Structure prediction request, 710 residues.
Amino acid sequence: MFSYFDVLSVQILFSSFILMANKRIKSYIKTFRIQSLLIALTAGAMGFSLEKGRIDLLVVCLLIIVLKVILIPNMLEKTYASVEYIVEKDFILNIPILVILSCALVVFSYFSVSTIEGINSGIINAQIVNSMSVILIGLFFMISRKKAIGQIVGFLVVENGLYVTALFSTHGLPFIVDLGVFIDVLTAVVIMGFMVFNISEKFDSIDIEKLNKLRG
Amino acid sequence: MGFVLLAAPIIAVLLFLFCSKRTLQHTVSVLTSTVLLITAVFITRGVLLWGKIEYQALGGIFYVDSLSIIVLDIVLIISFLVSIYSVSYMENEIKNEKIAPGKLKIFYVLKYSFIFTMILALTVKNMGIMWIAIEATTLASAFLVSFYSNRYALEAAWKYIIICSVGIALALLGIIFLHLSSIEVLHGSQYLDWPALCENAKLLNPSVVRLAFIFILVGFGTKAGLAPMHTWLPDAHSQAPSPVSALLSGVLLNSAMYGIIRTVAIVNRNLGSNAYVGRLLIAVGVLSIATAAIFIITQRDYKRLLAYSSIEHMGIIAVAVGVFTPLSIFGALLHMINHSFTKSMLFLSSGRVLQKYSTKDISKTKGVLRVIPITGTAFLLGLFAIAGTPPFSVFASKLNIAISIFEIGGFWLGAIFLLLLAVVFVGIALNLFRIFYGQDYVQDKKTSTPSAESNFAGIAVIMVLLTIISITGIFIPYELKELVLNAQNIIIGS
Prediction:
């Protein structure tokens, strides 16, 4: 059973590497879909395999599929379709360097998690290392992309990473909190999408490097 | 009774969606905030009598004690005053064609959703739900920041929503770790409940609690505007409409700080000493004051200057919580109250200056005292107050905090603290006092609305705030002292 979750956590980590290596905004959204599907699978599997059976985790699994696999990516694609411009280079460094730096982040989170007693009982908990790395890679993704939609996807990956960390370390937060977090994420994406739309209207671009008027 | 607090803003939001007349919208807004204020009086009485108010309904999420009632009262009093002020302010904006008449409805809907999320954050005992509410404050206020929807406002709003959402996501990680540290101690229904965590604090896993604290400090610290996570704050505060700036600065920052204080109470009980938390908070606090001091000295925009001053004051509160003696906690809570009232008064006055001059540039604003004498005087006195001049209340709480720093033997810390405060004072004096004198540059008399100074409600609100900060500087009412002392016991543990 344990190795089963190990595999899933490694796959989730791997999907964020794929995200880092993606070049086009459309493929970011696709990768995000896959990652969310993997997370839904993890939640579902955990709901079945825990001793008493956790119905709330199954509900959460369904919610993730509806929200993060279907609804949010569709919304992002729609936003992107309405603000589409000529494809430019979107990333700051080139992709191999970004991937190598992401590897460094995994190593970093391995060493920092392994120094904390209580998270790991003797052996280092690989699942938490992997999910913390997903958070770090999500943050790194946000600063490595110049387009506003890339930042939204990065934010969603951070949120995914948080959820997986909660799942692997504590078998999920209390149900009401999970529910609230989902509502928050959904609202955040709606608001950010709307704002991207406004930005592209006022600035004729969704390049966030043009947002540099307010200083000092 | 307590659920009125949560229900009233929701009902108001629904009502706004249905009424299209502007006068009706203003009426609903003022009525709702009056209802909230009256409810606050009753709940404060209840807390004074029984120490805390808890309801069993809805899984017992409603919980108000002396600590939350202090912040809650600040929220409700300021939102009441701001809603009175907004009536004339928004009417003026519509008259000057800054915003379309139809947008008033959106303004009120967003404002009351914003107030609802803040009330929710302060009346729940579950740390997870508190996190959700604090994240929701960002979402509700994002469109208020971009309300004028010009380039600057959009840039400010984008920075605001991205930095705050990511920052606060880290706080969620902290809360997950807090949950992890308590998972073997608490039972299912108690998970993440603050009173339960606090009671069993000694049994939590200390190394995980330490990790949790760092993430929560960074997360809620982003929202509270502590340096180096403060970069969204000056943009958002200067671009938002002035009533919203007053709410953001006077109320929102406190809600985030409240989250940090709740966590500090748990962590210090768990670790048994203040060494770990104190060092982190003092470092972040001093850094915030220093950053603010540098930017205040070189500032050219008066609303941004006020925003940087908010960063400074949040830094002062962080230092005071970091010192963690009874006196410093007392000072921190008082400072929270005093800063909120003073700063919202300043933002409201600056809103009137802005409407008169239509520029935020300090060098283009001259002769405020002659052009709008009453507001101008209040603005000048408010600036003296926020810089820490007696007899205003900010001086009293700053003095408390400074004494408490010297009492724990932190001579160098105290010296740096006072030096930085002096630098801030000089910065405010150097930059802002020059707007009050000199030739008035109100170029063409046509654009300046003749009704600007005859707008009694706005002036009355500013006067009420001025009275509050002058009186509490000299004497603290018995009830307030009682509440602050109780809150101090809650934080430190008696």
Remarks:
- Chain B has a mean pLDDT of 90.
- Chain B touches chain A through 52 residues (CB under 8 Å).
